[in-house]
Amino acid sequence: MTSVLLSLSALLATSALAAPAAVADPGADRPAAVPAGWEAVDASDLARITAETGARKAPLAAGDGALAAEAEPELLAMQSARNGRFVATEVDYAAPNTGALRARSAEFGGSWESFAFEWDEATQTYALKSLANNRYVAVEKNYTGSAQNVLRARSTSVGGWERFVVYYSEGLDRWALRSTLNGLFVTMENGYTGSLQYALRARSTDITGSWEEFVLYDLGA
Asked: How much is the pLDDT for 209?
């Protein structure tokens, strides 16, 4: 597996694929097939990739260098391959969308765009913890309508709602997340409008293109 390497000047352009249609829950109790060209990534893989020499670093906003100087390799920023924006935690949103994850930041600004990827050996999954509010990211399966399965940083502990499998494509040098709660891949809703524009939702049965693909940035020094 190659490193997550890319200079800031060579950030990937977004693809022109059409949005995949929302689909029904395929059944989280059934093992999900690994998409062709992708592989599930464990803690050692993630640590090795992010620690490699020249690993991609988050482009800091002007004057903001404190977080990167203190961060550990498992602290990462996520950038949507679809719109080129960084995923942020909407701490100031009112209920019921407090802590919603949206790919809306043009540059890395700090804790709002920072996440700790915590590996659990027993389940072979990750929990994502937002540094903006120190809450774990959960899939809101019980929401309805366009907000169903939206990702929110709102949990103080980790259970099935907060577990994800992380996938990597060596050929694309991109990453994907699949919720173990409903077995669906995380998608960035580029076509939404309003407060949930660019929201992240676990709703795709497969990785069809840039809608489900992300670039990871190491926040280590």
From this structure: 93
